[in-house]
Amino acid sequence: MRIPILIIILSICSSFINAQSFDKVWETEKVLKIPESVLYDEIRNQIYVSNINGKPTEKDGNGFISLLDREGNIKNLKWVTGMHAPKGMAVLNDSLFVTDIDRIHIISINNAKIIQTIEVKGAGFLNDIVIMNNGVAYITDMNEEKILKLKDGNVEFWLADTMLVKPNGLAIYKDNIAVGVKNSILRVDIESKNIKLLIDETGPVDGLIYLGKNKFVVSDWAGRILLVNPSEKIVLSNSTEKNIQAADLGYIPDSKIVLVPTFYDNRVVAAQLP
């Protein structure tokens, strides 16, 4: 039996609820240089932005980290330089960890300089990074479709699986990790490495923020930002027709503000969760 095309389209669209209020709080000037990732530092009450400043895979030495206050004022555009195409970031104590194609930089936050660079042999496209309470970090390699583990300064292969299709965003999820892949969010058990599907049919996941109670905010790079849980998907904003991207999201939890790097649009936009 043939099903009319219109019914198929309506069925697909029905899984996404129309956008709710997602009001802009502030935005930076367009002075950033291809911002890929935003990270809010709760301890220091400041924001880090990784700027590719070139092509995402090019080793050109142009990349840098910007420092913002929580109101979006740029305190130092080129706070730390000397990178190629920096992407995902995570804070551990007084250090900022940054992925950079096939390297991981460790930056002294107090001294605003790179204190160590770890080369990752065989890496294709290091993307996001999360650090657990015990200091162990997990990193996605989107091109090689695997997750790496960083412990005591040493990087090792940790996990590959057929479910890890273009792994990108990472989030700490109930003492384990959540991974955003091509069309879903997965949970990976740290001890057993077992993978469980948490939320399906999300579209490609770039930024991934865990809010608690199985709720996530995700971005798909092309411009959509969604609030998702296992039973519904709410479109918060969609700038794809304007060709404004939404890359790796940051989050200020005490005010429930999502930080959106607009990539080629060269801004960070802060918006209030409904």
Principal-axis shape equals: globular
What assembly state would you assign to the polypeptide chains in this entry? single chain
Helix-strand pattern: HEEEEEEEEEEEEEEEEEEEEEEEEE
In percent terms, what proportion of residues is strand? over 45%
Q: What is the topology, as strand order, of the major beta sheet? A: 1-22-21-20-19
Can you tell me the residue ranges where pLDDT is under 50 for at least 5 consecutive residues? 1-14
Give a quick account of the main beta sheet: strands, pairing sense, barrel closure. Answer: 5 strands, mixed
- Return the structural class: mainly beta
Structural domain tally: 1
CATH C-level class is Mainly Beta
The N- to C-terminal Cα distance equals: 42 Å
Number of helices: 1
CATH superfamily: TolB, C-terminal domain
CATH topology: Neuraminidase
Please tally the β strands and state the result: 25
What's the CATH architecture?
Answer: 6 Propeller
Overall pLDDT metric: 93
> What's the gyration radius in Å?
18 Å
